[in-house]
Amino acid sequence: LARRLHGLGTTIFAEMTALAVETGSVNLGQGFPDTDGPVEVLEAAVEAIRSGVNQYPPGPGTAELRHAVAEHQLRCYGLSWDPDTEVLVTTGATEAIAAAMLALVEPGDEVVALEPFYDSYGASVAMAGGVLVPVTLRPPSYALDVDALRAAVTPRTRLILLNSPHNPTGAVLSPEEVAAVAAVAVEHDLLVVSDEVYEHMVYDGRAHVPPATLEGMRERTVSVSSAGKTFSVTGWKVGWVTGPAELVTAVRTAKQFLTYTSGAPFQPAVAAGLRLGQPPLDALRDSLQGKRDLLCAGLRDLGLEVFTPAGTYFVTTDIRPLGFDDGVEFCRALPRRYGVVAIPSAVFYADSERGRHLVRWAFCKRDDTLALALEKLAPLR
Ligand code: PMP
Ligand code: GLN
Predict the structure, then answer these.
(1) Which of 173, 228, 333, 355 is the most buried (most CB within 10 A)?
(2) How far is the CA of 280 from the centre of ligand 2 (A)?
């Protein structure tokens, strides 16, 4: 194993989903919905396969999907991108992030990221030869510590890898926090890679603010999103990047030699989904908000300390009120003892000690799945 991959091991999602299958547990670990997305989207993929859309699509993605992504960004955020040069379709957000790191980070460059972070960030930065510098978000609010962000920036800093709505904490950066990040980026002339895969999963009437909408940010921001979350089709792995042509061209250069292209019949289906406009997105958000409330109330009843999330699929809890001390041990024991899988948040920290007492639960599941999980967990109380 090459030295730059040392310590990456097996992703927690593979380990925990395998354990869920092996033990027949309710899987509140890996963030995937257990219901499919809009029927129009599913039907469009079936129709595309039947009508022969099964060979390599164009490397940057089909023109139809690139136009649909551009229209979606314009409709939702007032951002105007040229579909030919400023939009790139990727194999999920995961590839978009990896390609962005490979394209934009020189060996030894520092990448500032909010910690805890989605586990592919550390791996992508490492594969690019970069150094991830964490800025820790702390419970209960998981608010951004702007002084810590400023202190993390050094002359070696190349970019800020941002994620809001934020996995795993569920935090959503406020307009003021996004403005603070933008101020730091502009002041130090940094690029921003903004992972917005949960852009439509923001609750309680709050709004998602894309950093690219702020002054001085359009020209330095690569925004990333994914159909997996937006249309509840995580296995399709259709993502996209938007940004100024120069940055998108750089990401495309790396992307060409990772996968070249993928998802031929899924690209027209995702384009059809984006053209459905706001109604299915609002319906999904409202449904997920209800699921959040159900799981948070249930976990609180068990005695866990619950940090209610403003967005995403996930809620974080502190396990200490139940007398446990180590989230990794807790999550390894949970499937066999109670028949439920959750994710130890420690895996999302550069220094796992900082997440030692924390456990992440996914609520993007059917209400009866959530109720069953809570029933199985009842003896914890
Ligand atoms: N970023 C974040 C914050 C995520 O939670 C995920 C997980 N789905 C991804 C990126 C990857 O998205 P995709 O499945 O489209 O590769
Ligand atoms: N993003 C999802 C999560 O955080 C799934 C990630 C994955 O399977 N790689 O659970």
Answers:
(1) 173
(2) 22
The tokens for 40 are 């129009």
Ligand 1 pocket: which residues have CB below 6 Å? 31, 92-94, 118, 163, 167, 195, 197, 226, 228, 234, 237, 239
CA of 31 to the centre of ligand 2 (A): 5
Average pLDDT, the chain: 97
For residue 58, is the peptide bond before it cis, meaning its omega torsion is within 30 degrees of 0? no
Q: 201-250: per-residue pLDDT in tens?
A: 999 999 999 999 999 999 999 999 999 999 999 999 999 999 999 999 99
Q: Which residue has the tokens 């039947």?
A: 50
- Alpha carbon of 12 to ligand 2 centroid (Å): 9
- Residue with CA at minimum distance from ligand 1 atom 14: 92
Q: Can you give the residue ranges of every domain in the chain?
A: 3-37+279-380, 39-276
363, amino acid identity: F
Which residue's C-alpha comes closest to atom 12 of ligand 1?
Answer: 93
pLDDT in tens, 119-147: 999 999 999 999 999 999 999 999 999 99
Task: Say how far apart CA 174 and CA 94 lie, in whole Å.
Answer: 25
**Three-state DSSP class for 311?**
strand
Structure confidence at residue 8 (pLDDT): 85
Domain 39-276 has CATH 3.90.1110.10: no
Pocket lining for ligand 2, CB < 6 angstroms:
11, 13, 30-31, 118, 167
- 375: which 2 tokens? 């029933």
Report the separation in Å between the CA atom of 353 and the middle of ligand 2, taken as the mean of its atom positions: 21
What tokens does 269 get? Answer: 């289906």
pTM of this prediction exceeds 0.90: yes
Tokens of 134: 């964490």
The answer, yes or no, to whether ipTM is higher than 0.85 is yes
Nearest bound ligand to CA 364? 2
Give bridge partners of residue 371 from the DSSP assignment.
Answer: none
Region 275-296 average pLDDT: 98
Q: So what's the pLDDT on residue 10?
A: 81
Range list of β-strands (E), the chain: 26-27, 87-90, 110-115, 131-136, 157-163, 191-195, 221-226, 239-242, 305-307, 314-318, 340-341, 343-344, 358-362
The backbone torsions φ and ψ at residue 366, rounded to the nearest 5 degrees and listed phi first, read: -55, 150
